[in-house]
């Protein structure tokens, strides 16, 4: 067990929420679709679920937000369960080295996206999950899966349909990416259906508490409450991908500053994993220049400084 | 303390050396300079230095080899000591997303290399270390530093001058990189002198045992034997950079398969760090398609599978 | 008047057709849609319309073929007539320096295609021509325009609907390009409608004789039979664009070898203009490595060698 | 003979010089080396040498300036004379589609520069001309050649040594290009010697009158005064290359606006050829955003508008 006790964590979480609540520099809220643009920049939430089950929350930790690209972690997990390591024939595992919706790399690499956390890669993952079934079915399966991960028996986690529709109206770049990969044969279902699934996944809405709960399997070698979600090996590898590729073209800097596997979304959320120790979710809608939550990133940096949870530090034992 | 005891590690190390000694697929020895091309592909060495000081070696662990790009870890450490975080104004911290000697990225990013582990970045680090002093002085400082890190009182670690000369004769790409960055003002000393330093750093020769010893400060929060080499914060961050950028454009895959911060060289060596647990060096001269030691990578994968040392796994405690 | 008389031209045209008929190396017929793949590689046609109205034909000069990208010359002419030099705010005038369907350049240049003869540029031209009208109307206008240019009173020039449908079924790259430009606001009508127009333009079918007739206005300073199609200034500039950008990423080589403004299509046709002298059409379905008609290019090289019509040579007078 | 008589040309040339002398927008004088930065922006010269030998000059037509990249036309001519079409195995013939000193393209195309008019291509041409001889010899040969072309018996054309030295001091990008191509084996002599030749060629100084005289062979099918400089075929092809690639990444626009083969230099000079009609030189040191002489380009546009000399227009006969 970690040397930093339960009581200290509660205090650290409260301190961080207080500091972030008062921060002047809050970044810029994503404005490409109206439902995201309307979220007040004052919001900040944090939830830490410990390996022993203790939960610490502060700020707006129980308010639902659009998890956006964080959903790519859950869809990747589902796809690995469905088709296993075959997936890696259609998606790479390397950081992209450029902007998250870049189409350039697809041209030189024959329609194989660099990794499952850039848009192109997540669209391929959706194509894999969709297969020959109906979009509604794939979407329902995803919602059920995330609810199960989060222990959300009440079914409060769901799709924000306003967000899903808005994405669909303006998603020309994603349409371009999908058509481009289809030209290389790496999208197989009709493009509109694949994107329908993709936009719905991005529109998943939940709170920090629910998100941190949903991430427990990644801290626990693939298991939640005695039940195996995926193998320990795959959980470890998803963590590795989150470290290498989880923060767009700022992933190296996130590793440098925070040192935990994490995945961010343009809704301002970040899911982070300290293997064996904690599953952490933060949310603040203002983004930094790289498209990651400004205060979310700062909050995680503070948390790691005070707990020593970075995977790159010797553990206190 | 880790649950896997000293005796087990010794056995695991021996098993791995035996397996690697018998492997048929050994990769391709680097051939761009004669002194490297002549190294027999049969070589395999491994050394594991535990946090408690125990050392386990097997195979050709005491034979010196050319550490090549692994030296970039030590030169970065020296440069951070010399100029601190100012260094990051001249070098980035993101994976490059392309081949290790790529000049393309420098064009679009105004002469700022992506990270200190690609050639261009390491050349900037050499320029920083050189400053206004003589190349011989900068080289001597580096040799002293690495000997101190390794506890090499006998002074057996040194520069292989045959390698250094051969690099200089054929290093047109590095000459191109250096001149190109000079055009942007990011190299300040005369190009030939900076490259002289760079080629000598790459020509450092030492054994797996010495290399693993030299890496102890990265496992120990920057300290060796009660003495602080760098701050814990910087040690943590160097580990993060090794994870993100330590294996050229295969870094994502190395994180995925091995899950430890590491740095490879075309001489076939890899230095790996399990924070708080072990400093590990492997060496086998045959390279895989990405330019990393084929058997070295495989050996580390085996080691992690049997010990659970990946930073992405919950630690046994 | 040119020193090479009418009789000599007839002989030269016949000689060329004989040589091309016998050629062994005929290139590779485009196979990305079935209707093109079925065209026999033995076909070769040539038609030369002189400034004085004389017409010389040989080979399969009266057989209709799919003009494909050659239609981009006519749609550009129509669009310049419709919106004038405003067009250049949405399309550039420089050679692309890379493959004809490259999406890379669009990313770095904010959705502005390099020139109106690459696919992306021609799609913008279609968007301009479509405006708010119905696709069927824009297509009918184009057919009328080309018939008028060619003096095709019988209405034999038309759309090959089998080709148009086949393009639509597999045009994922063009769909990607159009969506991508729409993301930058450089496509304004619904993407499917713009592409419907584009694919129909590409599916225009006519013979060498008709194509050479249709090109007369470019040889004659914008005029045909006393009637002005466009201003002399614009005719001159369209010729310049054909010289710089008419042969995909082989345009420099075509200028080097042939030295006439020209535009090729993957159907194997090429329209060429010797200003003040002749309008020339050649057709042979086998393509060279750059996607231009292998024998068509060779035939034009021969024609220029024997007539001295290259714009880069001093004219005999 | 062209319908625009000698008297009219004289008047047109005088008009243009008057207009350019009064122009307010004169562009920006190149400042990367002091000797160029000191040239007064007021300068403007024009010289037109007709096919019949008549010479029309106006403005500062007899003042020497640094021809810079225009020398690439003469060095190409020499190299074709020396090694013939073998040259094209080491240099391409396509426009570069990007900035004139781009190193990116060299990476993807294995050290083969796109054309002989970008820096990398001209450096290869220098390597060809240098061969195993001494740099001084290659430079002397070039000076003799250009004097002969220009009929400069007095030997007033020469190298501006101040310019040559200044280039050498700051030519890090060219040093990078040369080393990079050497890494691919496409530079064979020692890099410093090749660049010594290159920088001296760029430092050739002559007047508009001399430059227009030197360009006569390109208007005359390779001949000057009954003497053959190169074959008609090669003269034609050099003209084609000037059209496709003569104005950096603005070549398409120059063809569109002027419609004559031409080559510009950062000293503000442009050599233009109207095949069979005239050899034209203009000079004004202020450059536009693309690095071509602002008033030089405008002067040529005016000249073509008033004479109809564009190769894309039907000739008046």
UniProtKB/TrEMBL annotation, chains A, B, C, D:
The keyword Hydrolase applies. It comes from the Bacteria. The keyword Acetylation applies. It holds the Pfam family Glutaminase. It catalyses: L-glutamine + H2O = L-glutamate + NH4(+). Keywords: Acetylation, Hydrolase. Substrate binds at residues 69, 119, 167, 174, 198, 248, 266. Its EC number is 3.5.1.2. One of its GO terms (molecular function) is glutaminase activity. Belongs to the glutaminase family. Homotetramer. This is Glutaminase. It comes from Novosphingobium taihuense. The gene is glsA.
């Amino acid at each position: 067990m970690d040397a930093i006790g339960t009581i200290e964590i509660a205090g650290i979480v409260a301190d961080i929420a207080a500091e972030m609540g008062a921060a002047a520099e809050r970044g810029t809220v994503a404005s490409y679709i109206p439902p995201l643009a309307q979220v007040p920049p004052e919001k900040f939430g944090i939830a830490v679920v410990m390996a022993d089950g203790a939960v610490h929350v502060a700020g707006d930790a129980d308010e639902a937000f659009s998890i956006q690209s964080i959903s790519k972690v859950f869809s990747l997990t589902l796809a690995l369960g469905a088709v296993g390591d075959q997936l890696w024939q259609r998606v790479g595992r390397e950081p992209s080295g450029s902007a998250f919706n870049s189409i350039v790399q697809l041209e030189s690499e024959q329609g194989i996206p660099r990794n499952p956390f850039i848009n192109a890669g997540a669209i391929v993952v959706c194509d894999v999950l969709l297969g020959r079934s109906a979009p509604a079915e794939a979407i329902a399966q995803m919602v059920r899966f995330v609810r199960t991960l989060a222990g959300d028996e009440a079914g409060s986690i769901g799709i924000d349909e306003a967000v899903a529709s808005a994405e669909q109206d303006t998603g020309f770049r994603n349409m371009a990416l999908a058509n481009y990969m289809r030209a290389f044969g790496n999208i197989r279902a009709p493009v509109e259906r694949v994107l329908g699934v993709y936009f719905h996944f991005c529109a998943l809405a939940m709170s920090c508490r629910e998100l941190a709960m949903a991430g427990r399997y990644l801290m626990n070698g693939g298991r939640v409450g005695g039940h195996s979600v995926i193998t320990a090996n795959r959980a470890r590898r998803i963590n590795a991908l989150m470290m290498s590729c989880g923060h767009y073209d700022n992933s190296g800097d996130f590793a440098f500053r925070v040192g935990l596997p994490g995945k961010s979304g343009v809704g301002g959320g970040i899911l982070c994993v300290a293997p064996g120790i904690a599953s952490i979710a933060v949310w603040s809608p203002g983004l930094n220049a790289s498209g990651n939550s400004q205060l979310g990133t700062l909050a995680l940096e503070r948390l790691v400084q005070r707990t020593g949870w970075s995977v790159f530090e010797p553990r206190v034992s």
